[in-house]
């Protein structure tokens, strides 16, 4: 007997046992996943909507039916490999009302820059799960078994590829939830399944400027459309407002109804939120609300800009974590002595340089009186050479100058392997993602600022700065004046030391 006909008989039996039961779609019901675990919506979302190095758990209680809740549970760990790729591994269990599916999920996604501000992301979710009947209460005789479940649970392999095309803050996504399904159980002919579930989406991310609860905030509306075999097409809209501390979302789904949720992040690591969904159609009349709960723990500090395509907030896109200088530091006797020796050495080097310049000048004057033009030119070249040495000595002295950080001042210094001119740089942002870096540089130019940057290979980050200075005093003066009133956001100083 054909398997589709047997499934039809199963639904018919359930309908007879429960005259008012609503048929539940067989998809993952993941339409409200905006903030965490959204790789179940589209596998490419693991790149920027799942926080990197995080463990997130999402659970959905559908309609709160006693003894037979069609629930979903998804626990997922996401890890960012580099600025272009990430992967995830998770556990999934869902009750479709007919089948109970329990298994694991593997995820991988990669982002390609195909043109300035244009990115193409490819991803895939690989599922492996055991499938068995979720409810056999309608079966009155224990001697009657469903033919296609005589051998017990079946083990299914399923692949869900996804794609996203993004231009600046706008993106289009598409995924096939069951593009490939393979039954490993004995006796299954695996002739293929033409009944595919397709999901398309379009979204736009809009940065929100603010401080406090609005710091690194953005708003992202998203439209989506899903086709499910033998059911009406699903469509809906949801909108997410999110910052470093809270998120609020609301939406509408043509089958499940209206939804609203709220959540918060505590201690910059732990997040928890809840959502309620209420059906508004006559088909769902009398159904209890659906509830969703999500929790997440971030093992690494999240980059807020990643939530905004084309911005790094993300993103928000964020500043590199800088070690804050202690309020006061008392120097030991040895340290004071070492500082005194360094100061004396710099003083001696400076005196030697002055003496060298004076000697060369005197020799040049005598040569001009006694020698020909040719000899004078040669001595002038010698003077230039010695002066270059003196300038080099002065530059070395500037490299060795000690910086005493002020109370609460953000300051960092390092010897870089890259060919970057030593000095004091006014840093305004740090990026690990090229698209966010491009967007931020363009936003500064629109404000009349000509930003500059250097790339730090060891950390794989672009440092965006306003200007370079030879001394800490000059850098502080520019920082305190907000770069002569041209830049009102946070500025910190990064010193590049010579070897």
Describe this structure in words.
The chain has helices at residues 3-17, 333-370, 373-400, 434-446, 472-480, 482-485; strands at residues 54-61, 71-80, 85-95, 99-115, 118-133, 154-167, 170-176, 180-183, 198-204, 206-208, 217-227, 234-242, 246-253, 257-266, 270-278, 290-298, 411-415, 423-431, 452-456, 461-469, 492-497. Residues 4-20, 137-141, 144-148 and 309-325 have low confidence and may be disordered. The strands form 2 sheets. A 14-stranded antiparallel barrel has the order 1-2-3-4-5-6-7-9-11-12-13-14-15-16. Strands 17-21-18-20-19 form a 5-stranded mixed sheet. By secondary structure, it is an alpha+beta fold. The radius of gyration is 33 Å and the shape is elongated. The longest helix is centred in the last third of the chain and has 38 residues, at 333-370. It contains 6 helices and 21 strands. A hairpin with a 3-residue loop joins strand 14 (257-266) and strand 15.
Offer a quick outline of the entry.
This protein is α+β, with helices and mostly antiparallel strands and 499 residues long.
Order of helices and strands: HEEEEEEEEEEEEEEEEHHEEHEEHHE
CA-to-CA gap between the ends? 79 Å
Unreliable residue runs: 4-20, 137-141, 144-148, 309-325
* Coarse shape: elongated
Please summarize the sheet with the most strands: 14 strands, antiparallel, barrel
Task: Assess the beta-strand content as a share of residues.
Answer: 35-45%
Task: Provide the helix percentage.
Answer: 10-25%
Count of beta strands: 21
How much is the radius of gyration in Å?
Answer: 33 Å
Strand order of the largest sheet: 1-2-3-4-5-6-7-9-11-12-13-14-15-16
Structural category is alpha+beta
Counting DSSP H or I runs of 4 or more residues, the number of helices is: 6
- Overall mean confidence score, pLDDT: 81
């Amino acid at each position: 007997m054909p398997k589709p006909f047997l499934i039809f008989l199963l639904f018919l039996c359930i309908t007879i046992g429960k005259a008012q039961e609503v048929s539940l779609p067989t998809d993952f019901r993941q339409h409200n996943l905006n903030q965490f675990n959204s790789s179940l919506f589209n596998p490419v979302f693991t790149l920027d909507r799942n926080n990197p190095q995080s463990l997130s758990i999402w659970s959905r209680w559908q309609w709160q039916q006693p003894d037979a809740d069609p629930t979903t549970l998804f626990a997922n760990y996401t890890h960012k490999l580099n600025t272009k790729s990430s992967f995830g591994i998770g556990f999934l269990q869902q009750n479709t009302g007919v089948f109970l599916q329990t298994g694991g999920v593997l995820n991988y996604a990669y982002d390609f820059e195909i043109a300035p501000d244009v990115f193409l992301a490819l991803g895939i979710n690989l599922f492996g799960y055991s499938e068995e009947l979720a409810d056999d209460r309608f079966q009155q005789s224990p001697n009657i078994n469903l033919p296609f479940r005589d051998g017990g649970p079946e083990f299914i392999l399923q692949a869900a590829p996804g794609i996203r095309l993004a231009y600046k803050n706008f993106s289009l996504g598409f995924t096939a939830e069951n593009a490939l399904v393979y039954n490993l159980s004995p006796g299954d002919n695996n002739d293929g399944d033409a009944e595919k579930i397709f999901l398309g989406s379009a979204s736009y991310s809009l940065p929100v400027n603010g401080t406090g609860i609005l710091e690194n905030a953005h708003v992202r509306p998203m439209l989506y459309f899903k086709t499910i075999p033998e059911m009406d097409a699903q469509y809906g809209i949801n909108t997410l407002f999110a910052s470093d501390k809270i998120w609020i979302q609301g939406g509408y789904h043509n089958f499940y109804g209206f939804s609203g949720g709220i959540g918060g992040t505590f201690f910059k690591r732990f997040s928890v939120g809840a959502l309620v969904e209420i059906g508004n159609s006559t088909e769902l009349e009398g159904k209890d609300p659906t509830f969703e709960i999500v929790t997440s723990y971030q093992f690494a500090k999240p980059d807020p800009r990643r939530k905004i395509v084309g911005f790094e907030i993300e993103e928000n896109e964020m500043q590199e974590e800088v070690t804050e200088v202690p309020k006061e530091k008392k120097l030991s006797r040895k340290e004071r002595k070492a500082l005194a020796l360094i100061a004396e050495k710099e003083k001696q080097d400076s005196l030697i340089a002055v003496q060298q310049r004076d000697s060369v000048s005197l020799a040049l004057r005598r040569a001009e009186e006694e020698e020909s033009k040719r000899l004078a030119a040669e001595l002038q070249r010698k003077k230039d050479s010695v002066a270059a040495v003196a300038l080099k000595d002065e530059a070395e002295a500037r490299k060795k100058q000690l910086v005493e950080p002020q109370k609460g001042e953000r300051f960092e210094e390092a010897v870089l392997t890259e060919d970057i001119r030593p000095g004091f740089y006014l840093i305004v942002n740090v990026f690990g993602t090229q698209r966010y870096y491009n967007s931020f540089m363009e936003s500064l130019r629109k404000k009349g600022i000509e930003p500059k940057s250097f790339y730090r290979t060891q950390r794989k980050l672009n440092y965006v700065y306003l200007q370079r200075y030879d001394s800490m005093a000059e850098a502080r003066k520019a920082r305190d004046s907000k770069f002569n009133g041209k830049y009102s956001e946070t500025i910190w100083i990064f010193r590049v030391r010579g070897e």
